Amino acid sequence: MRRAVYPGSFDPVTYGQERVKILKEVTTDIPNVVVRSFEGLSVNFVRDCDAQVIIRGLRAMTDFENELHMAQTNKVLMPEIDTMFLVTSLNYAYLSSTTVRELASFKSDVSAFAPPAVVKALNEKFSL
């Protein structure tokens, strides 16, 4: 059975990472997808999860350049691993975890950018 990993910082999870819906659609042939917080070269993460596919999300051209570089490096290190790129919808292409975290630290309402449980956790973290 093929296994895929979807690493990312997800700190916090935002609507910009709305790729869960897309993941369900594009991974019908990969029934086992691990979504986990991880940054850096994915090769060790992939080994730990015993995966054959790395799924990466793209929001902008700068994401593409960075992710392509990482995918090519991973391919040299582990030629048997494939990388699949997913594109975020235009509605959230501008949104990043860093932006949401920074807004929350300034006590801004981030409910338009993240799920209710995340908003609650951010409010608690920043004492709103």
* DSSP strand tally: 4
Question: So what's the CATH class?
Answer: Alpha Beta
Question: What proportion strand?
Answer: 15-25%
Distance between the termini: 46 Å
Number of helices: 5
Query: Which residues sit in consecutive blocks of at least 5 with pLDDT less than 50?
Result: none
SSE ordering: EHEHEHEHH
Structure description:
Helix content is 40%, strand content 19%. The chain is an alpha/beta fold and 128 residues long. It has one domain (3-125): Rossmann fold, CATH 3.40.50. A 4-stranded parallel β-sheet has the order 2-1-3-4, with helices on both faces. The mean pLDDT is 83.
In brief, what are we looking at here?
With 128 residues, this protein is an alpha/beta fold.
Characteristic key phrases:
4-stranded parallel sheet, 5 helices, Rossmann fold, elongated, 19% strand, single chain, 128 residues, alpha/beta
